[in-house]
Amino acid sequence: MKKILKKIIMAVFGISFLASLTLPSVFAQSVNVSLPTFKITMNDVVIDNSQRIYPIIVYKDITYVPMTYNDSRFLGLETKWSSDTGLQVNKIGEQLSYNPDKGYANSTLESAVLPGFKIGVNGQGIDNQNEPFPLLVFRDVTYFPLTWRYMVNEFGWTSNFDSNNGLIINSKAVTTGLTTPPASGKVFSQVFGSVTAIFDRSSSNQPGNLSVMENNITKKIGNPNYIYGVSYLQAGTYGQYNAVDKAEYANRWVYTLAVDPSASTITSKNVRINIDTNEVQALDGSTISNASNSNNNKSYSKQFDNIMVILDRSSNNQPGNLYIKENTTKRIGNPKYIYGVSYLQSGTTGQYTLVDKIEYANRWVYTSAVDPSTSTIVSKNVRINIDTNEVQTLDGSSMSNSNNVYNNNNNQVYSKQFDNITVMLDRSSIKQAGNLSVIENNSTRKIGNLNYIYGVSYSTMPFEAYNPVNSLSLVNRWVYVSAIDPSISPLASKNVRVNIDTNEVQLTNVVP
User: Fold this and answer.
1) What gap in Å lies between CA 66 and CA 480, rounded to an integer?
2) Which tens digit of pLDDT belongs to each residue from 15-73?
3) For an engineered disulfide with 497, which of 50, 262, 469, 478 has Cβ 3.0 to 4.6 Å away?
């Protein structure tokens, strides 16, 4: 009763901006969320999450915070709602004190949903349905993901995470100003909480010009041969450096531009520099030197919050060329495969072509791969688990995988990913019964009636034929697919749904 009364009061004052959006048709699919297992500190306040009515939650390993009136103002944000513009989240100067908002025992959580209304951040529209970490609605309140993009780029926050202290967020207003300058007195500096990044501007092509000040101690960081915070323009036989006052900071890394003046072709690249180890990592597939890269320092990399995925580009047919950087750098996947390439056979010769395609979700890296040991070499879409090194094909490929207990001897599958669940159809034979399986929590199991043939249609004109139907959907623990019961005459393909927990099979009019 207390919770209901509180929502009514909030609606009266225009704070509960979702009050008019509780119709099921407004929302898209539901998703499973969990409570964080680590300590959370925001603006020097340790959050007691166990009794919050609107707790901090985790989805796809990303922390989400509620956009209630008190919580958003505590983080220096303002939320506005209208039926025309939807939800607007904007950074403001005002920050209220913390409200613990207790009164609810959070032992288990219900599902969250993806909102169907418009969303804007700092005046820019967000395509939330296609975001890798979308805004969610949980207990009728919108939740915001704490990704680097939003925290640093949009709101100017700082963050840190380690196993002892957990997640630390500081959203307090920061200012840009000068620190103790180099001898020339020309600097650009930017303050990020307790860390200040400083560019030496005594010259536009001054190497080793990046410093940080922390605890009143100033030190140079990065490669002393690089020029930081500059762009380079080649005009004929002459080149020109231009100062670019661009710096960001998150999790002990400074993000900026850098130039390696010793390179044969001088270009400015996006990099990040660890302020503790001086490690420099390229963020856009650049060839800027990096000790963690391969021998000739060629790589393509892409950053996903605290995980960087790296393709070794020392050769376009280099096996075992997939790495991740998460605290330490390690090789992942099958060391015999070539990742991030396509293969084209022309006559008696073949050619590998680099494919800069990387995605990441739920501890899986998505990219293309080639198994050069196969008789017919083709590039396939795969995903690689960064913890177990398991490789799964995503498009019915014939790529071998010793870790995938589902794939049969000729490894022909069609699969589709739904958050943390993979649904697969065995394509070893078009008449293969019991061919529907799921992977969940690194466990593969068959589901449904083992006598049925799933993912096929049946026709008699102009002759009898089974045809594969690559159509799968997953809603509320039910897999929607076509199926044939070969024990029934006449044979016919039906639309069914299969419960992945009970194996129950039901006829449905829903086309998967």
Assistant:
1) 33
2) 333 333 333 333 457 899 999 888 999 988 899 888 888 899 999 888 999 988 888 88
3) 478
* Cα three-residue angle 315-262-314, rounded to 5 degrees: 5
Yes or no: say if 301 and 293 are a contact pair by the CB < 8 Å rule: no
**Per-residue pLDDT tens for 342-361?**
877 666 667 778 888 888 88
Strands (E), 193-265: 195-200, 210-214, 217-220, 227-228, 230-235, 238-243, 248-250, 253-259
Q: How confident is the model at residue 454 (pLDDT cuts 50, 70, 90)?
A: very high
Tell me the C-alpha distance between 221 and 193, whole Å. 18
Name which of 441, 442, 455, 468 is nearest 498 in CA terms.
Answer: 455
For residue 2, give both structure tokens: 């207390």
| Residue range 167-182, pLDDT digits in tens | 888 886 433 333 343 4
Residue ranges covered by each domain of the chain:
2-170, 175-291, 295-401, 405-512
At 24 the three-state DSSP class reads helix
If we measure between CA atoms, which residue out of 290, 248, 246, 240 comes closest to residue 267?
240
| Rounded CA separation 147/133 (Å) | 8
CA distances to 112, 167, 443, 444, 447 from 439, rounded to whole Å, are 22, 30, 5, 4, 10
Asked if 252 and 276 touch (Cβ cutoff 8 Å), the reply is yes
DSSP string, 385-422: ETTT--EEESSS-----TT-SSS-TT--EEEEEETTEE
Tokens of 205: 């092509």
> 141, 54 in Cβ contact below 8 A?
yes
Do you know the residue count of the chain?
512
φ, ψ for residue 342 (rounded to 5)? Answer: -120, 160
Gap between the Cα atoms of 425 and 427, Å rounded: 6
What CA–CA distance (Å, rounded) separates 101 from 3? 11
